[in-house]
Design a protein that fits this description.
It is a single chain. With 292 residues, the chain is an alpha+beta fold. The chain has 2 domains: 72 residues, no CATH class; 208 residues, Fumarylacetoacetate hydrolase, domain 2, CATH 3.90.850. It has 7 helices and 19 strands. Strands 1, 2, 3, 4, 5, 6, 7, 8, 11, 12, 14 and 17 form a 12-stranded mixed sheet that branches. It starts with a strand and ends with a strand. It binds magnesium ion. Magnesium ion (MG) binds next to loops.
Amino acid sequence: MKIVNYSVEGTVDYGFLVDKSEFVPRYFIEEVLREKIPRDIKRLLPDTELRELIKASLESVKLERVPLSSVHIEPPLKDPRKIICIALNYRDHAEEVGSKIPEEIVFFLKPPTTLIGPFDSIIKPGIAEKIDYEGELAVIIGERAKEVDSSEAMLYVFGYTVFNDVTARDLQFRDGLWRGWTMSKCFDTFAPTGPWIVSADEIEDPHNLRIITRVNKDIRQNSNTSNMIFKIPDIISYLSKIMTLEPGDIIATGTPAGIGYTREDWLLKEGDIVEVWIEKIGAIRNQLVSTK
Ligand code: MG
């Protein structure tokens, strides 16, 4: 199942992708099933029974389809309760920023106001200059998870999406204090996400997916999620011992090497288009613009 969140003239709803270019809106299926399907994706994710019904109707009933090109694609979740990002989770990336390989998971949070859709523009803040990209695989939590063991952690995953952890490098390290880390990652529009959520049953092994970031078509990051230091079950288990994970929470799993931080000419310039592609999920493509 692939869930796409979209808007038409400002009204947001979601639907289910049937091929690369068409989807069936939630309310069409609601009519066919004569069953209420919650408007809030976060409420659909833990409802396995309802999702099975939807899946069956997508396969068996002839439903009206809508072309993706006729709607605005929104981030898969517009108001998750949390966006948790794992730092330094690829060996080559930790090395390129001159950091030692962490022995324990390092994480930080981004507010939901950072989220934008897969083809929306990243807006350059007035107080930042060195805007950088970080292509990442994101996990979408499907069920409430508190103090879960690694061996059971994958049961709490609903699916996966593509994430760009946009960062203002000049603010991140400006005074050696942690203040900079949070500030540099929290600007509005600094989390392009999408283009949809692919449910976990469609991804055989989330630790074997190619991940590629291009800027204006030039390949900058080219890796595989097999290179993660801390794997998804350990990340979920670790985080669930600190905070309750809830349906719709987004966990970005870290970025591989190839960011602009150590190569100034690779930092994003106004007008640049950054694309993050992950095998079996799709690509997000966002342009850096300035409002000045
Ligand atoms: Mg990151």
